[in-house]
């Protein structure tokens, strides 16, 4: 019974994480990477890549979010590991 309850709770959490990932991206990433991931004028000046053309793994995206890169802010300690993973998955999934 405990396994069933845990499975139900996890299945309910997955859609919530996806929605949270979109909201987190909007709050933390939009200013430089833009809603479409192609980069804002400010972001492009700072070297923000076009996220729609990235050829790196989800794990590499998570590392970049966590540790920053170039002029990008590091989000370690500002976002939970689960939030970082959710945003990385959101980016790797084409911002969907």
Structure description:
By secondary structure, the chain is mainly alpha-helical. 60% of the residues lie in helices and 0% in strands. It has five helices and no strands. It has helices at residues 2-28, 30-33, 41-45, 58-67, 81-92. Helix 1 (2-28) crosses helix 5 and helix 4 crosses helix 5 (81-92). The radius of gyration is 15 Å and the shape is globular. Residues 4-16 have low confidence and may be disordered.
How many beta-strand segments?
0
How many strands, what sense, and barrel or not for the largest sheet? Answer: none
Q: Helical region count?
A: 5
What is the radius of gyration? Answer: 15 Å
The best one-word shape is globular
The percentage of residues in β strands lies in under 5%
Q: Please, what is the oligomeric state?
A: single chain
Low-confidence stretches: 4-16
What sequence of helices (H) and strands (E) makes up the elements?
Answer: HHHHH
The helix content is: 55-70%
Distance between the termini: 34 Å
What structural category arises from helix and sheet content? mainly alpha
Could you report the average pLDDT, rounded to the nearest whole number? 86
Outline:
This protein is mostly helical.
Topology (elements, then pairings):
Layout: H1 2-28, H2 30-33, H3 41-45, H4 58-67, H5 81-92
Helix pairs in contact: 1-5, 4-5
Keywords for this entry:
60% helix, 5 helices, mainly alpha
